[in-house]
Amino acid sequence: MDEMERTILDYVVKEYLEEDDDREVTVDTPLISGGIVDSFSMVSLKRFLEKKYQIQIPDADASADAFDTVTSICAVVRKFKRN
Amino acid sequence: MSNIGIYEERLKDFNWSISERELGYRAGDVLNIGYHCSDRICQLGKGGKLAMLWEDHQGHEKRFTFDDIRVLSNTIAAFLVRLGVQPGERVCLFMDRVPELYIGFLGVLKMGGIVQPLFSAFREDSLLTRLKDAATSVVITQRKHLPVVRRTRENLTSLRSIVVVDAEGAQLKDKEVALSMEGEPRVETFVVFPSTAETPSVLHYTSGTTGQPKGAQHVHYSLISQYLTTKWVLDLQPDDIYWCNADPGWVTGTSYGIIGPWANGATQAVLDAGFSAPRWYAFLQKNKVTVWYSAPTAIRLLMREGTELVRQYDLSSLRHLCSVGEPLNAEAVLWSKEAFGLAFHDTYWQTETGCIVVTNLPGMPVKPGSMGKPFPGITAAIVDLKTAEPIDKPGAVGLIGLKPGWPSIIRTYWNNPTGYAAKFKNGWYLTGDRASKDRDGYFWFVGRDDDVINTGGHLVGPFEIESALLEHPAVAESAAVAKPDPTNMEVVKAFVTLKPGHEGNDDLELEIMNFIRKRLSPLAMPQEIEFVASLPKTRSGKIMRRVLRAQEFGEPVGDISTLMDE
Q1: Does B557 lie at the interface with A, CB-CB under 8 angstroms?
Q2: Total domains, chain A
Q3: Were both Cys, which of A34, B36, B328, B455 would link to B346 (CB 3.0–4.6 Å)?
């Protein structure tokens, strides 16, 4: 797991899971389709990513499928960090 | 031929007794929704028919026949009786879309309880407000939601028991009990509570402009409307596989996600998973869904993924599509024709109406963007905003008014008869929605007539958000208003003034967003926060939300003669 994956995974666990929620979340755990992050909460997750990585993610790239795992989120972040 | 046949013919001699006869009900009889959705279907010889095809996000599957539904709802009803729950007590269902939610709904009704379904994404404050108001005795929940429920219990004197449906391996605390629906001894026979037409059944909380959410109180007689509207609008037929996207935490998920389809003996598919276009299409394909009841926000999310994705799946089983929750825009109707070869039929109703009241019916020409026409038995009119006098002029905008008297209209707001009485004027139930009617009798939605925010088909009250915002240490004053949004129709935007020593910046905005999400729910989380020096107020000091809302929508702000000079 690289640093970006670790940072985003930690943020998801801290912000979207209850303190005593014992579900294991990995970089490949479905977040949206798995019901951990809903489509409304995606806005706050997107805002975090934009702030943390100093990028702008267009709404078209912030789809439920693109945000469904930490791995896929990292791909989105890397795409816009490069641009 | 559709179930309704020809709309104009149905209007001529319509009487709700059509539904009563089909359900075998006569005035004064015992009437229990739980019985009608399970035992009665079995008595009609359909006990072996599939009632529910269930699947979760991990691909786990379960199947239940109507006989399973009958026996398992008996099992839950008997469990609640053993727990000491009395008829008339409120039993909250706080679960994701697991089978226990659907079957538990019937179980509570069978033992005479009032079922109070709450959206499982609600967090502590939202849950507490609703449980406190209803003086709820029992909450049935899952392990994953137990922490939120535990945080509310100290403030709930009436809460006696917390029932956990997947407690295996969990450390339960005082007043917490385990219920394994499929692990309990099956209760073949249960004497259903002899409820009658006006016995309270379901308590759904809904938001208004002022005050905290109100408990819309339904009765068992609502079944009469819900059965027939399901049959005629959703057009469910014996071999259909039906999928309703709505969560039973909201009224669509109970009226048309439990009561309507099962009272009709229909097989329904349930997907306990968040939104994903490929996942949804795969679910439709796999289960050969024929009738699909969705929502504009979901349809617009599917539109974003394009028609190419649709082509990768065999969706030829689909034959009838309907939508509810917010106005269905013309583009979505046209897109669905292109994507599925079928138009989504918009349906309009509210928590308070209990059933579809204005709709596009099968066989009726769909005017894209229109709400359709009143369901037979529903008298709907455009009424004057101030006097509630009907306006019979095509194109004139007024409030949608409905003549009270159909079976599923709410009987009161829980603990709030004044709020209930305020919904009626000049003999009309006032929906709070503005619309017009064209020369052909089709209704066209214009917008809300109050400050309630319709986000993704869910009504969110500004007062609840503003109250929570004030609990944040940096917030001095706030106003929550609707902001237009291409996917959700509206989203919450908050205007905030800060206490001295705090600076409005991106960090604080994200902090406040998450604060509200964790206190109330993701739906209530402002998608944008604007830090302002002051808020527009009347001379008496009341914040004028409508001025801020008008700014967001680019509309005229209207009369601001009462605006306080800065």
Answers
A1: no
A2: 1
A3: B328
Q: Check A39 against B301: CB less than 8 A apart.
A: yes
**Residue among B522, B506, B504, B502 nearest B514 (CA):** B522
pLDDT in tens, B144-178: 999 999 999 999 999 999 999 999 988 999 999 99
Which amino acid is residue B200, in one-letter code?
P
Tell me if chain A has a CB within 8 Å of the CB of B523: yes
Note the pLDDT tens digit of each residue in B358-392: 999 998 888 988 999 999 999 999 999 999 999 99
* Domain at A48, CATH number: 1.10.1200.10
For chains A and B, CB pairs below 8 A equal 77
Q: Which residues of A touch B (CB under 8 A)?
A: 15, 18-21, 23, 30, 32-35, 37-41, 43-44, 47-48, 51, 60, 63-65, 68
Q: Do B510 and A21 touch (CB under 8 A)?
A: no
List Cβ neighbours of A14 (8 Å cut-off, separation of 6 or more): none
Long-range Cβ pairs for the range B125-130 (8 Å, 24+):
B125/B464, B125/B468, B125/B519, B125/B520, B126/B464, B126/B519, B126/B520, B126/B521, B126/B524, B127/B94, B127/B152, B128/B152, B128/B155, B128/B156, B129/B212, B129/B213, B129/B464, B130/B92, B130/B205, B130/B213, B130/B215
Q: What ipTM is given for this predicted complex? A: 0.90
**Pairing assessment for the beta strands B475-485 and B489-498 based on DSSP bridges:** antiparallel
Please, what is the Cα angle at A77 between A72 and A82, to 5 degrees?
A: 130
Coil/strand/helix, residue B44: helix
For the entire predicted model, the pTM comes to: 0.92
pLDDT(B223) > 60: yes
The mean pLDDT value of chain B amounts to 94
Q: Check pLDDT > 90 for residue B183.
A: yes
At B454, list the tokens: 């319709």
Residues 93-152 in B contacting A (C-alpha not used; CB under 8 Å): 96, 121, 144, 147-148
* A49 in Cβ contact with A73 (< 8 Å): yes
Q: What residues make up the domain containing A58? A: 3-14+23-82
Q: Is the pLDDT of residue B559 over 80?
A: no
Read off the amino acid at residue B246. A
**How far apart are the C-alpha atoms of B120 and B79, rounded to whole Å?**
22
For residues B504 and B497, give the distance between their C-alpha atoms in angstroms, rounded to a whole number: 9
Residues forming a β-bridge with B428: B425
3-state secondary structure of B398: strand
- Cβ contacts of B303 on chain A, cutoff 8 Å: none
Please count the other Cβ atoms lying within 10 Å of the Cβ belonging to residue B470.
Answer: 12
Among B375, B373, B299, B371, smallest CA distance to B337 is for: B299
Residue in the structure block whose two tokens are 């279907």: B41
Whether the CB of B456 is below 8 Å from some CB of chain A: the reply is: yes
Residue A34 has pLDDT above 80, yes or no: yes
d(Cα B40, Cα B58) in Å, to the nearest integer? 33
* End-to-end Cα, chain A, rounded Å: 23
In this structure, what token pair is assigned to residue B425? 């004027």
Contacts of B220 (CB under 8 A, 6+ apart): B31, B32, B33, B109, B195, B196, B197, B198, B199, B201
SS in 3 state form for B437-459?
A: ECCCCCEEEEEECCCCEEECCEE
For residue B476, the surrounding DSSP H or E stretch is strand B475-485
